[in-house]
Amino acid sequence: MYDYETLSLILDEACKLEENSFLDKLQYVIECLPSISATRLAFHSLFGEPWHIISKELDVNNVDEWLLLSNILKLSPDQLYAVALQNTIKVYVSSLGDSKNANTLKEKSRCRWGPDEINKDMMDTVKNILTKIQDLESTSALATYIMKELPIGAEKVLSLKFCVSFTDEWLQAEKEPSNYKKAKTAYFKFKSLYERLATEQVLFLYKLATPELLNLCCEPEKLITELYQHPSVLDSTLPEHLRPDINSMAEQIASIHQLTIEDLKVSLVCEWLETNKTEDVDMTMTLGFGNIHLLEHDNKQLDGDNFKRVAYVLRSGDIKHNIAFLLGYSGTLKNSVSMTSVCQLQALLCMFDMASIEEITKITSMTLEEIRRLIQNQLYIVNLEKLNIAMTAKSFEDCNKEKLAKSIWKNHSNGKMAQEAAIIVSSLCFDYKIYSFTMWEAVLAKMKNLNMMKELEHILLHIIEIPSLDVLPSLPSAWQTIIVSILNKSSVNTDEERDECLHAFNLIQRCPDVLSLDLDLLAKHFHHLELPVCAISCLLMSAVVNNKLLQSILSIGAEKLFNSFLLTRTKCIASAVSYEVMVLIFQLIMEENLSHIVEKSPYKDAYCEYVQQNQNCLQNGISY
User: How far apart are CA 523 and CA 536, in angstroms?
Assistant: First the structure.
């Protein structure tokens, strides 16, 4: 048997000697070569099959140098560009260290979606080289390769945009039927991929990439509609940094899908206004319409979610265009769309949530009075429709308002629409100065019978401003009714309930004929509700003071009375009776020797002045 281990040792040594001998022979030749030969092959090796030598060396930085040799080496310039780009992209992607396969929502959220995270120089170079390739099909194929290699993010979106652009060029230039079909298929494929990924990019950038919204990326209209359902649209109290700019998102998504955002907005606004068409309209807003500025912020017509969405949508874009749209929608302009009167009214009201009165008057070239009359007329048209009275803006403007009011009262005051009739008739009487005693007496009586206390209070407070109506026989009874109704349903268990009671007391002081009220009854109500100062005030306003009841109230003691006085002083209207009540309480404080309770109150000076008029201040233990 052979000793293979020994033979191996001998053969290895022999091979080394032979190798060293060969190197010694070449050493002289190697020393004569330039130093670059250590890393570069001899030029003659490129002839024949150069690709296996240069394919790994090509990149975007040296491709122009190789192009100079393309004719000599019989290389295709398009192929040189392609290999250079492929090599460059491979190196670039490996340097990123990102996974191309970000499949889960969590993985996608970590991707570089921001436009500022794009390597602009790299992507500009890529686009520049792609445009130099002559064969459009090859360009599209190479763009596809680049798109697939790049990780998900802003750069992939941009590369997809390249794919769409180059396949579109290929499609437009292709004449051969089979290739045209291939180009068309590629174009629509990349267009769809680009639109989806670019839409996802918008959602991720604004941190709204939920599974539900991502599923709608291929349905832009539905997606935009869904975005306007976001809670931030309705909650104006949210800090700015917590409110995604839905309008900006909608514009970007519409641009990606080549949709006209204005058309989408119009469609949504019309849909939302129509959705609210069954809501009741508050006719009391016509009363005292001189305070038109209240429409800007306090109008309950704009409390609905869809109204807030309409205002949100129309705050973006050209405000002049948006106001013109609402005026057209409302039927004001000649090219108006056909809509219900309720929707037309709502469109007008939306203007005040979208812009200030100054802006509206400037843009529309309408005076404040013209705007007031426009909305007022539309309000009447809407509410008259509830009574099955159809009128246009012109027919309402031209009609005799007193005859209209009498007709409404005659036909509807005793039916199931009696409340609506009472509101419309009272509004007509106020707005058009109809001061018929018979009409007003009937309206006040009907409101009392139907327990329309809120509306009745509103009317009584406005009648005060009309001297010719001050002598209506039913006024005292109406005032008594609304005040008692408030007190009957109130208590002082909460601050809100106490404020309601104090509101009733303020109504007493605003009543033009206080002596016609049953003040003793009202005093008992306030005493029962533990508002002794209001009770005493009622008694002191009487023509004949009920001393027995007054003493009963005063018997609760000076300290409780003074605390009640402090509690109510900021909520109640100041009047002459307030001073009388204060004097009574000061008298009790002196009698009960409780001067110390006034020390830290706003009434210290007034109390000292009162005491000085009666006896020496120092004898009562109060420093001044």
Answer: 7
Task: Please say whether the beta carbons of 412 and 442 come within 8 A.
Answer: no
d(CA 323, CA 5): 99
Neighbouring CB atoms inside 10 A of 162's CB total 23
Task: Report pLDDT digits (tens) over 290-304.
Answer: 333 333 334 444 457
Q: Are 611 and 580 in contact (CB under 8 A)?
A: no
Helix-, strand-, coil-residue percentages of the chain, each rounded to 5: 70, 0, 30
Q: Which residue has the tokens 């596809």?
A: 144
Q: What residue has token string 């940094």?
A: 241
pLDDT digits (tens, 9 = 90+) for 116-129: 999 999 999 999 99
Nearest Cα residue to 109 out of 229, 250, 208: 208
Task: Tell me the β-bridge partners of 153.
Answer: 112
Tokens found for residue 131: 């445009």
pLDDT digits (tens, 9 = 90+) for 3-58: 555 546 555 655 555 555 655 666 666 667 777 766 765 555 566 677 777 888 88
Q: How far apart are CA 452 and CA 380, in angstroms?
A: 20
Q: What is the DSSP string of 506-550?
A: HHHHH-TTGGGS-HHHHHHHHHHTT-HHHHHHHHHHSSS--HHHH
How many Cβ atoms sit within 10 Å of the Cβ of residue 519?
23
Closest CA to 557 of 599, 607, 592, 598: 592
* Nearest alpha-carbon partner for 450 in 476, 422, 483, 488: 422
Instruction: Tell how far CA 278 is from the center of its chain.
Output: 23
Contact 320, 363 (CB under 8 A): yes
Which pTM value belongs to this model? 0.66
C-alpha span between 75 and 82 (Å, rounded):
12
pLDDT digits (tens, 9 = 90+) for 235-261: 877 777 778 999 999 999 999 999 988
Q: 375: number of CA atoms within 13 Å, CB side?
A: 28
Could you give the CA distance from residue 604 to residue 238 in angstroms, rounded to a whole number?
45
Q: What is the three-class DSSP state of 600? A: coil
Give the residue among 353, 372, 350 at the shortest CA–CA distance from 361.
372
Q: What is the spatial distance between Cα 269 and Cα 265, in angstroms, rounded to a whole number?
A: 6
Q: Residue 109 and residue 107: Cα distance in Å, rounded?
A: 5
User: CA separation (Å) from 263 to 267, 270, 353?
Assistant: 6, 11, 21
Spatial separation of the C-alpha atoms in residues 225 and 265, rounded to whole Å = 9
DSSP class per residue in 439-493 = HHHHHHHHHHHTT-HHHHHHHHHHHTT-GGGTT-TTHHHHHHHHHHHHHHT--SS
- Assigned token pair, 78: 């398009």
